[in-house]
Amino acid sequence: MGWATLDDMALEGKRVLIRVDINVPVQDGEVTDASRIARTTPTIRDVLEAGGRPILLAHFDRPKGRRVPEMSLEQLARPMQDALGVPVRFCAACVGPAAEAAADALPAGEVLLLENTRFYPGEEANDADFAAALARLGDIYCNDAFSAAHRAHASTAGIASHLPSCAGRLMAAELSALSRALTEPERPLMAVVGGAKVSTKLELLANLVERVDILVIGGGMANTFLAARGLEIGRSLAEHDMADTAREITEKAAKAGCEVLLPVDVVVARDLAAGAPHETVPAGACPEDAMILDAGAESVRRIRDALERARTLLWNGPLGAFEYPPFDAATAAAAAKAAELSRSGRLVSVAGGGDTVAALNRADAAKDFTYISTAGGAFLEWMEGKDLPGVAALKR
């Protein structure tokens, strides 16, 4: 792998600084989705069972180097305690005398949660002195926050140069799954890329067409590619100024031998609303006053056929406006097929990104995918072929 894991570290009696991502949604003081908290628990429990003393580093929201009371991690101490089933102490600092005293006083069998690292300007600046101050709190550094690994921050990268470092259970699982899917995949390798804008996924598409065998382009991005081919898309969301780029990506795919699947039929409507009147027309026959909101049945059939041929799948982004039924039909049908093949062991399927996970959960397919990444930006940057600072720091 190129990096150590918890199994490579002698943890008994050691203060283990664990970088976690518990940046969860909170409404009226209550956590509305605790899935990120739940996925931190295996690492923390393993450290406790090995006799280590877990000290948690984390960020919450974007305070931009200022102390913002409503962004304090104190509100997550109780949810963390409920998830772990052991006492979780909170310290209103993450560096300095108070934090050092709290770390030193942490009894065996308990967990210490430190204050939001982003309350300090040195965090996002990856300041060397701030990283050193964090390191003084522990004996071992464990990064379990793959979803923050694309940030070169003090708690994700800088600190690793001061302490013996390793990957936590979630980090190791993410890296293993992603390597299996893109670095050393069983072929044919297929990618599904959706979402609104080509401009936000240019590097992703440019990387994928040279690495995958089949590329499905859906969502608003597909409209830009259809328009670039001179097809009528009506009032559909599209980036017409990206037409040349779309053509360049298509040409690059052809040279690389990558099969690109765009919609051949589309579901159109005059209003973006749940239950809006709609119809299916051939791609390029969208009425002037209508919008393309989903892929049609023939397009879905082609995607399902491609999935039958594939042995590895990467998925990022929905195929249509899935938040507004019935324009979730293409995403649900393709996801159901991927889930079926994954259950039978015929497909290794890895998905990531907030909208992607929401769409797959809505289709009741996520539970059958081989791996669902907790990451958004880090997942995208990894798919783009970038070296993630948090991972690179562990390798060093």
Task: Kindly describe this structure.
The chain is an alpha/beta fold. The protein folds into two domains: 6-170, 3-Layer(aba) Sandwich (Rossmann fold), CATH 3.40.50; 185-383, Rossmann fold (3-Layer(aba) Sandwich). The protein has helices at residues 35-49, 77-84, 97-105, 121-124, 128-135, 169-183, 202-208, 219-228, 243-256, 297-309, 329-343, 354-362, 377-383, 389-395, and strands at residues 15-19, 26-27, 30-31, 53-57, 88-91, 111-114, 140-143, 165-167, 189-193, 214-217, 259-261, 265-269, 278-282, 291-295, 312-316, 348-351, 371-372. Strands 5-6-4-1-7-8 form a six-stranded parallel sheet, sandwiched between helices. Strands 11-10-9-15-16-17 form a six-stranded parallel sheet, sandwiched between helices. A hairpin with a 2-residue loop joins strand 2 (26-27) and strand 3. Helix 1 packs across helix 2 (77-84) and helix 10 packs parallel to helix 11. The protein is elongated. The two termini are 12 Å apart.
How are the elements arranged and paired?
Layout: E1 15-19, E2 26-27, E3 30-31, H1 35-49, E4 53-57, H2 77-84, E5 88-91, H3 97-105, E6 111-114, H4 121-124, H5 128-135, E7 140-143, E8 165-167, H6 169-183, E9 189-193, H7 202-208, E10 214-217, H8 219-228, H9 243-256, E11 259-261, E12 265-269, E13 278-282, E14 291-295, H10 297-309, E15 312-316, H11 329-343, E16 348-351, H12 354-362, E17 371-372, H13 377-383, H14 389-395
Parallel strand pairs: 1-4, 1-7, 4-6, 5-6, 7-8, 9-10, 9-15, 10-11, 15-16, 16-17
Antiparallel strand pairs: 2-3, 12-13, 12-14
Helix pairs in contact: 1-2, 8-9, 10-11
